[in-house]
Amino acid sequence: MSVVFSSLEEATGRFGPCALTIGNFDGVHIGHQQLVREAREQAQTRGCRSAVLTFHPHPRSVVAPDRPTKLLASIDERVALLEETGVDHILVLPFTAELSNLGAEQFVRQILVEQLEARFVVVGDNFRFGHKQGGDTALLASLAAKLGFGTRFVPQIRYRGEVVSSTLIREHLQQGRVARAGRLLGRCYSLSGPVVRGHGIGSKQTVPTLNLQPPDDVLPANGVYVTEVHDLDDDRRWPSITNIGTRPTFDGEDLTIESYLLSHLSGETPQTIRVDFRRWVRAEQKFPDVTALKYQILRDVERANTYWRRTAILASK
Fold it and tell me: What is the DSSP string of 170-195?
């Protein structure tokens, strides 16, 4: 179980000596996971702790507040994903205007070496740090030689010709390419939150659904997806089909995330769910009437059932 620190004051004297990797780690995708693996290997070799330094809020929200970034995961989700990597220590460092003004050499000397006791630093080969991102890997290597710690600069991970990045994953999601985004994340992209009351249209006119409160995370493009719904308060899950959109057939305006379960919901209705996005089905569209919409939903359900049957066959081989 990782030990999580929320300030430098809390971490100082308890965090290191460590092999440390640094970054925003939004989404904790397969490139981030490689950095953590490298830090763990270096820690094992040197007999010290493996550690992650990440930041909250996202630095862009401080240095460029006019260009807000929709994130792939909340800070709680990010920490939980980092904990799953098996790293020993995690520091969520509050990113402030004061920190953003810290020079590159000051950042390394004061924070990494003196307070976090870094004995080895693992970062990507495009890593930038310090005021106005004035530091790069060449400067970090020079400071490492001067201050007595080791470094490893990991080349960017490529998957099927794409350089893996949080920005690219956001782009895939915004185009509805959830399967491709999932491959770069190393897991399905998911949205979590409380189940909320819908408009009553599904139960009365189409099909009953579980409605997820739209979170502040990046949302996949409006459309219909093959999904899996997880009850976060119980060990229950259901294959499902999910619509993200505004219900144009009913002249809706508010964004909704509605999941229709493909297997029976026994017991209490879940209070908090996670929706895993597996595959794009179609774009959201306006139908001439409820009958046409119901017919399309049945076709969508059949496509989802076919997906789950094939998934079960592959899993059994």
Answer: HHHHHTT-HHHHHHHHTS-EEEEEEE
Rounded to an integer, the average pLDDT of 155-176 is 95
Rounded to 5 degrees, φ, ψ at 215 are -80, 180
Q: How far apart are CA 187 and CA 206, in angstroms?
A: 31
pLDDT tens digits for range 261-296: 998 888 889 999 999 999 999 999 888 888 898 899
Q: How many CB atoms sit inside 10 A of residue 103's CB?
A: 15
Q: What is the pTM of this model?
A: 0.92
- The domains found in the chain, sorted by start residue, are 3-156 (3.40.50.620), 182-316 (2.40.30.30)
CA distance linking residue 217 with residue 223, whole number of Å: 17
Instruction: Quote the CA–CA distance of 220 and 171 in Å, as a whole number.
Output: 9
Q: Are strands 89-94 and 3-5 parallel, antiparallel or unpaired?
A: parallel
For 42-65, b where at least 16 C-beta lie within 10 A, e where not — what string? Answer: bbeeeebbbbbbbbbebbeebeee
pLDDT at 204 over 70: no
Nearest by Cα to 56 from 8, 98, 6, 11: 6
Query: What sign does the dihedral 28-34-38-41 (CA atoms) show?
Result: positive
Mean pLDDT value of segment 98-122: 97
